[in-house]
Write a structure and sequence with these properties.
Largest sheet: 5 strands, parallel
Number of domains: 1
Number of strands: 5
Helix content: 40-55%
CATH superfamily: Response regulator
Distance between the termini: 38 Å
Strand content: 15-25%
């Protein structure tokens, strides 16, 4: 299966990055990985192809997954996002939990991971716009 979709996976746990990669890479996804939000922004800025999906841990050192998603969505409003955490959605997002449509509670199965990724990608519009001017100004704000 060749999906031609690029996914940015962000998690401070190297084992989690490895496990997600082992599930998604054989499905044809191009994977980029980072261990924290600032590194993810650098990876995103350096990527030559459009990133279709951000798969990110919520709780990370420095920039949270939620803040990372907000930053990246400034460059690409159509970026699909799936949040991951050991905690439940209501604990993490409180009243904003309803606005988080794609959430994976750790630990998750391979099947659940694939379903969430495919679902998030299926829901996002296909056109992608990336403004390098926004990227430069947002990275300076960090």
């Amino acid at each position: 299966m060749n999906t031609a979709e690029t996914i940015l996976v962000v998690d401070p746990d190297p084992a989690a990055l490895r496990e997600v990669s082992l599930v998604l890479a054989p499905c044809g996804y191009t994977l980029l990985t980072a261990r924290h939000g600032t590194e993810a922004i650098r990876v995103y800025e350096g990527c030559k192809t459009p990133v279709s999906l951000l798969l990110t841990a919520v709780m990370m050192p420095g920039l949270s997954g939620f803040d990372l998603a907000e930053n990246l969505k400034q460059w690409n409003r159509r970026l699909a996002v799936v949040f991951m955490s050991e905690h439940n959605r209501e604990t993490l997002f409180g009243e904003n939990a309803r606005g988080v449509s794609h959430f994976l509670r750790k630990p998750f199965t391979e099947q659940t991971l694939l379903q969430k990724v495919r679902g998030a990608l299926a829901e996002k519009p296909r056109a992608m716009v990336v403004s390098s001017q926004l990227a430069v100004s947002a990275s300076r704000a960090l």
